Amino acid sequence: MHPETELVTLGLARQEYEGVVNMPVCRVSTILFKNFADFEAAERGEYPGITYGRYGNPTQTALQEALAALEGADHSIIFQSGMAAIVTSILAFIKSGDHILMADAVYGPARRFCDQELKKFNVEVTYYPPDIGAGIDALIKPNTRLVYLESPGSLTFEMQDIEAIAAAAKKRGCITISDSTWATPLHFRALAHGVDVSMHSLTKYISGHSDFVMGALSCKKEHYKTLLYTSRNMGACPGADDCYLALRGLRTMSLRLKRHQESGLHVAAWLKKRPEVVDVLYPALPGAPGHALWKKYFSGACGLFSVQLKPAPHENIRAFFDGLELFGMGYSWGGFESLATLCSLGKSRTAARWPHEGPLVRLHIGLEHPDDLIADLEQGLARLNGKA
Ligand SMILES: *Cc1c(COP(=O)(O)O)cnc(C)c1O
Question: Known catalytic residue: 272?
Fold first, then answer.
C-alpha cells in the first residue's frame, strides 16, 4: 500500500465498535479483569492486555499500531510530549559514567536536558558538527553509548548524512536516536536507514491543528522492552482524547504536507531573490544547503525553514514582526497557520560558531494562499528597511 492509503486505513477497529468509522476515545484509569486467573496473570506480569490507564488505553493502542506501521517499526510508544519521548529515549540506554554525542543543531530543550540534568548523573555530553558524516567515528570513545541525530537541525536546518553516522555508530556499539519530526513518518523512515530509535513530536504535523502536545518513539523488537520499561518508570501517559486527535490528524496529513511543501517552496524561492536575504535555509529548495542530502533521504518536505537576513537595526526588526498580519509569533509549528519567530542561537551552538550577524528568522508556511503570505512578508521587509 502507498503511505497515503496507510494514513487513511491504519489505527481503526470498526469491527470491535459496531462499525463506527473512527476509533473511539477510551478514557481510562481502572481496567477490570474478567476473572481471578487473569488478575493472577497480571500479578506475574504475564497478562497480554492493558492493566491500568497509565499503561495505555485502546485509543492509544490504535495510534501506536498506526505509527509503527508508518515507521516500518515493530513498535511505537506514545508520550505526553515530544520532549518526554526525547528524555526517555536517552535515559533508556545510558548510565552514570557514559558519554553521549549530540548533534550541535539539536532541539534546544533537548540540549538543556543534557546540560542541566545529565550532568548531575555524571554523563558526559559532546556536541558534534551536524555535517560530520562518517567522521563521527573519531569522536566515539570507549564509554560512548549513544549518538543522537536531528536532520534537518532545529533553527539552522543542517541536513545530516544519516546512514553514514548510523553505520559508524553501529560499528562501535553505539545506539542511534533520530529526531525526525521535520520530515514526519510520511517523508522519512529512520529505521530503514540504520537508526535504532526514531523520535517524533506529534505536536507538529500529526496534530496539524495546534491543539495538543504529544510525542512518539518507534523501534524494532530488540530495543522495545528497554524503551517500554523506561517509559513506564518515567510515568509516560498521553491522554486518550489527544490520541484520538492524533489519529484524526493522520487522515489528512498527506494532503496538508503537500500544500505546506508547495507553498513553502513558492515563498522560499521568492525570499531567495530579495536583497535583504543572505540565504534561505530550506533543504527542499534547489541550491539550498543540504539539498543533495534531502533528496537522498527524504521523499518530501514540510513548511518550516529559516531565512538568514542581513544585519538590521533592532527597531526595524521589531517593526518587521509587529506588523505581520498572517504570520503569528509563537513557538511550535506544523499547524494550519503561518508563524514567524526570531531565532536566538546564543550559546546553543558550541561545535562551531554561527557565521552570520544578522537576524535569523524561522518561518512556518501554513495553509493560507502563498501569495497572501508573500504580500505580508513584502510589507514586513519594507519595515525592516525602515520604510514603514
Ligand atoms: C517541537 C519539537 C520537539 C518537542 O516536541 P514537544 O511535543 O513540543 O515536546 C522535539 N523536536 C523537534 C525538532 C521539535 O520541533
Answer: no
- Alpha helix segments (H runs only) across 151-305: 162-171, 184-187, 221-233, 240-272, 291-297
Ligand 1 atom closest to 181 (CA): 13
Give the Å distance between the CA of 83 and the centre of ligand 1: 6
- pLDDT at site 112: 97
Of 78, 86, 84, 41, give the one whose Cα is nearest residue 61.
78
- What is the helix, strand, coil percentage profile of the chain, to 5? 40, 15, 40
Catalytic residue check, 383: no
Which residues of the chain have a pLDDT value below 50?
A: none
Contact between residue 228 and residue 56 where contact means Cβ atoms under 8 Å apart: no
Q: Tell me how far the alpha carbon of residue 207 lies from the centroid of ligand 1, in angstroms.
A: 12
Contact assessment for residue 245 and residue 212, using Cβ atoms and an 8 Å cutoff = yes
| Alpha carbon of 90 to ligand 1 centroid (Å) | 15
Distance (angstroms) between ligand 1 centre and the Cα of 349 equals: 18
Q: Which ligand 1 atom lies nearest to the CA of residue 214? A: 7
The predicted-structure confidence for 68-99, as pLDDT tens digits, reads as follows 999 999 999 999 999 999 999 999 999 999 99
Which of 98, 131, 161, 179 is the catalytic position? 179
Residue recorded with cell 529526531? 179
User: Which pLDDT score, from 0 to 100, does residue 387 have?
Assistant: 87
Residue whose CA lies nearest to ligand 1 atom number 6: 82
The grid coordinates listed for 210 are 495546534
Ligand 1 contacts CB of residue 107 (under 6 A): yes
DSSP codes of every residue in 315-355: HHHHHHHHT-SSSB--S---SSS-EEEEE--TTS--SS---
Around 336, how many Cα atoms within 13 Å sit in the side-chain half-sphere?
Answer: 7
Q: What cell does 242 get? A: 489527544
On the 0-12 / 13-18 / 19+ scale of CB atoms within 10 A, 171 is exposed
